[in-house]
Write a structure and sequence with these properties.
Length: 308
């Protein structure tokens, strides 16, 4: 049986008239790489700030490694590594000075836990005399992660760590997170990038302060209902309008140069093609495709709107 690292029970949080979190319940297993996936404004940062004891919930209970986020905030801060969405280290200090400062705060040294951060810190160690404010986005990211790990935390909590960095740095960052799992560290990472969900052991899809689904990425895509098609024609705008008016359409969204259309299983592509031809669409292309996490997220949102 998996040991629970994070236990969230009926957590709610409001800012005046805005309900950021609405009765959230969620469990994260020890040693798990868990993704909190959703767009800006979904409630990800509010939940993370509650877990890192920076925010007090209006109601509900949450524990991190058995410690209550309100009563035991001092203990949680000792065992948690936290990386904020915005670069929050001391820009006027050098790379080395930032590392030494965070190590000292937690009563340790760089040398004592170097084996844990070596894989990450080695990328920026050649620039250890450079001020943090002069680093590139990818190097700032690695420095922030190194500082979050320098005290060998039990749980690492990352709030949108790859926002604003290039694709190569994003890929490197996730590779580093994968390797950290070998050290039995529980990792909670929030991100608006749906493709990053595929890299997690499990994910929670969140929108408007509500958890839409919690499962492995494979199970979420495997449970997709309906037939998913990629549809393209000369006039995408008119095509989307006509597909939205098709009686067998469940949902239709723009994905790059195609429209992703979810239809009721009983309807055939032949009937769809005939319908679109009567609407005057030329150079029509229809392909059945497998859903990704973003398709599932949009479908869950559409289902929520259909059945509030």
């Amino acid at each position: 049986m998996n040991k629970i690292s994070v236990d969230i029970q009926n957590i709610s949080k409001s800012y005046k008239d805005v309900k950021a979190l609405k009765d959230i319940s969620l469990q994260i297993n020890q040693g798990e790489l868990f993704g909190l996936i959703g767009p800006d404004g979904a409630g990800k940062t509010s939940l993370i700030r509650i877990l890192t004891t920076l925010l007090i919930p209006d109601s509900g209970i949450a524990t991190v490694e058995g410690y209550d986020v309100v009563k035991d905030y001092k203990e949680i801060r000792k065992i948690t590594g936290y990386m904020a969405g915005r670069f929050s280290l001391y820009q006027d200090l050098t790379v080395e000075e930032n590392m030494n400062f965070y190590a000292t705060v937690f009563g340790t040294t760089i040398e004592e836990n170097y084996d844990l951060v070596k894989d990450i810190y080695s990328h920026i160690e050649p620039f250890k005399k450079r001020r943090a404010g002069k680093l590139s986005g990818g190097m700032k990211q690695k420095l922030a992660l190194s500082c979050a790990l320098i005290h060998r935390p039990d749980i690492l909590i990352l709030d949108e760590p790859t926002t604003g960095v290039d694709a190569v740095s994003r890929k490197e960052f996730w590779e580093m997170l994968m390797r950290l799992k070998d050290h039995s560290i529980t990792i909670l990472v929030s991100t608006p990038y749906m493709d990053e969900a595929e890299l997690c052991d499990r994910v929670a899809l969140i929108q408007d302060g509500i958890i839409l689904s919690v499962d492995t990425p494979g199970n979420i895509t495997g449970n997709y209902e309906g037939k998913l098609l990629a549809v393209r024609a000369e006039d995408l705008y008119q095509l989307k309008k006509d597909l939205a008016g098709y009686e067998h359409t469940l949902s239709v969204y723009l994905f790059g140069q195609n429209l992703h259309l979810t239809m009721m299983e009983k309807n055939s592509e032949k009937d769809l093609r005939s319908y679109l031809k009567t609407k005057g669409h030329g150079e029509l292309r229809i392909d059945q495709i497998n859903p990704n996490i973003e398709d599932c997220f949009l479908d869950l949102m559409a289902g929520k709107e259909r059945n509030p």
